[in-house]
Sequence to fold (714 residues):
Amino acid sequence: MKAKHFALLTLLLAVALLLAACPAQPVAPAAPAAAEQPAAPGVINLQLMGWASSDAENVRLQEVVDGWNAANPDIQVTLNLVPDYDTKLQTSLAGGAPPDIFYVDSFRLPDLVAAGALLPIGDQMTDVDDFYPSLREAFTVDNVFYCPPKDFATLALEYNTDLFDAAGLAYPTADWTWDDLRAAAEALTDKDAGVVGFAINPDFARWIAFLYQAGGEVTTPDFSAMTLNTPEALTAMEFYVGLVRDGFAAPASDLDSGWPGEAFGKGRAAMTMEGNWIVPYLKDQFPNLKYGITELPSGPAGKATMAFTVCYGVAANGRNTEAATKVVDYLTGPVGMKAWTDLGLAMPTRQSLREGWLTMYPELEPMLSGAEYARKWQFRPGFADVLDTINSGLQEAFGGLKTPQQVLEEAQAVGEQVLAR
Amino acid sequence: MAASMTTTAPTAVRRESRLRENIRLVLSYALLFLIALVFLYPFVLAISTSFKTLPEINERPVALIPQTFTLEGYQRMFALNVGRWAFNSFFIATTVTVSNVLFSALAGYSLTRIAFPGSRFVFLAIIGTMMIPGIVQLIPMFIVLKTLGMIDSYTGLIIPKMVTAFGIFLMAQFFEAIPREIEEAARIDGAGRFRMFFQIVLPLARPAIVALVIFSFQGSWNEFMHPLIVITTNQDLYTLPLGLAFLRGGLGQNLQWNALLAGSMLTTVPMATIFFFFQRYFIEGISYSGVKG
Fold:
């Protein structure tokens, strides 16, 4: 009885398998990659690969691409936003089937250039000089401008206006110095209420702004030597760590938060230093928070901020690089760039669009102005080891386990090994 | 009086021991309740968070019941074609499981029961592939599938997963333990190879089959890397794990937790339901084999 049942079940399974296998067969030719669609005569199909962002951004980018497709029947672009972008890009590059156009983070650029994956198209763009020099620089390796920046974000100082009012302090301005920042952070810290003046993480990507403000550098311009073990770097490290050691600043984890923006949103920190991404975050998750934005304070050597930017790269071994270059020129050109950045979430990389954008988003002026003096977030291939060393070093310095000098010496040593590779 | 004395003394003792037993029972239940709470709390919190608004998710202390109940997260998931992704996940997991059981059983049987030259070597070679980590297969897998034109298709998602070395190993181990005499008896009764396999050996291997069904269904349902490299452009072919990763996207800090958790619920609940259902069979299968063995 049981055996019979089982034979029947097995038979059913076998039939199910056949049925299941059948639809799989005809589906295969019906769902080929968009890039491999049998092209109608004269029509070039291109794939633009990026990572998914917020809904608003995904939709807007699709609209910009649709605008191109409608105006250019001979070059049709498919927008492909994918999960786990880095793995995906690496697999397709290694597999010899890269997308025609893809996002390149300025931090990843040296690796991709070293791998020969990118076609240098920067100089073929319309009015190249219109791009902010600091952003052009972020996609230039050995004097070759590889790809035009699609948008960018800079670090700025966000401050909670309610907490400033309660403490009777004047709001921060672009003229602030380190001393002003420190004095305000001290005045705003309220141990009993669990509020600190400033939320900062043990994060190289934030501390580095202070390094540049102090006149320090990570390496020499030609990457031949590390320059972290210098008096300037020590000044920056002592200031940054000192804020935390003295109790005027704290990392997000000490403020029951996942990142400084969250601590700021919750009112556990009166100030923080984040980029444009904090704006939609605060609007969505902390709609009642009252805050302002200003430029980062000046250090002993003046102003500095960090620019985080992404470009449209064209694959070096793509089949239709000429068409792809034209599409990139449209997307980063005055028309495509305006359509994309008018959304207000990312900032235009063209100086000619500055005024128009600012009339729509005047409150973001400090972030856009950062482009004038921003530094690029980019090092040599393999520099992740230095990042890790500084991040964990900062963490230990926050906890008082290491002195700023020790952290810098270690980072210097690791960096020298990386540069010697 | 004397009589009542003799009766009350043992009653008191009995009462006392019953009381002690009750206390022990209450204490152990309290402990079990606490442990259950520790395991269930994150799950309940995830369900409740999937119904909260974004500002409320950040509120502290965390409320277990949403103050403003919203379907925002679920709406966002459904706007993303989650139905199609769920179908894909289910279709692929079912197909892969059925074929994996069938082929693993056939291969396991022939490798342990049919003597042919080199059978030991073939078996060891198959087992040997289990030592190759999945991550180094990614790029070769992509190149092979691309050459065969299987990128962006169900075939590419299913065929490479239709039989696994682990499945063959599991089935072979089980067949090894079934006494040969049973088959010999069947052969004397005139049963052929396939009749013997399907009617005698396979039913006996039910516990192994149930285990393999669970392993491969769950493995396929949760699989992320394989669909990630096979599906390059066609979002209609995403599975649920890919869809969830897509939702996380490049948002970084501005994660929409309610949508992400709504998606996680849609991914977890069917699986959990199936498991509750299968659990009984799983245990049943083990006890069956015990009786028969």
About this structure: The first helix of chain B runs from residue 2 to 50. Chain B is about 75% helix and 0% strand.
